[in-house]
Specification:
Rossmann fold, alpha/beta, 2 domains, 9 helices
């Protein structure tokens, strides 16, 4: 069991491990941290962890996430970036690609509908489509990952993939992945808006009924 979200001490932030609650992962799984440090000492992992920490400190409260991605990729000496985007954000993707190219990167972009495969191939019924009665191509995130794998991108940047579709891409990506933006059609792609406006969304969030598993 791990329940850091409800911790009252966050002893890990102050190196006061004696104040950690009994169910703290540091108390429950000490061996995991030894294994973790072995992984961090591998040259490529160490380099990435150092670059991430330096970008965090240098741009703290100053750089936008897009700037952080550029700075991180520079420090890692990445040359070829994959831009993985939802077709609904194609206008935004075009602008992001322009910015990344201006920063000196080779940008390889693949949209989610690539392949134009009908959703029926997934076993979806007509009423399970967004717009029943029309042709709807499936979001082909595994193809996005496979294509960028063939191109041999150094880093893939996710932009606006749906819940679950992002999971499929992350599962199949050959290169490391970072996320520029996530999809939330209700909150202008700012999902934490539901948390910051919790008093307004509390009833809405609590009212969801769990469907039967597929």
């Amino acid at each position: 069991m791990a329940d850091c979200a409800n911790c009252g001490s966050y002893a890990c932030r102050t190196n006061q491990k004696e104040k950690a609650p009994p169910d703290c992962p540091m108390n429950q799984f000490p061996e995991a941290y030894e294994e973790t440090m072995e992984e961090y000492l591998k040259p490529e992992t160490l380099r990435m962890a150092r670059a991430a920490a330096i970008v965090e400190a240098t741009g703290y409260g100053k750089w936008t996430r897009l700037e952080e991605i550029i700075e991180f990729a520079w420090r890692m000496d990445f040359k070829k970036l994959g831009l993985v985007f939802c077709s609904g954000l194609r206008a935004e993707a075009r602008k992001v690609a322009k910015v990344l190219k201006a920063a000196g990167f080779q940008v390889e972009s693949v949209c989610c509908k690539t392949g134009s495969k009908p959703k029926e191939l997934l076993g979806l019924k007509e009423e399970e489509k967004v717009r029943p009665g029309t042709f709807e191509p499936m979001c082909n995130n595994i193809a996005q990952a496979k294509i960028l794998g063939r191109i041999k991108t150094d880093l893939n940047v996710l932009m606006g993939l749906c819940v679950g579709h992002d999971s499929l891409f992350l599962k199949h990506s050959r290169a490391p992945v970072t996320i520029l933006a996530v999809k939330d059609r209700v909150l202008a792609h700012n999902p934490l808006g539901a948390i910051y406006a919790e008093h307004y969304y509390e009833t809405k969030l609590a009212g969801h009924k769990k469907p039967s598993p597929l």
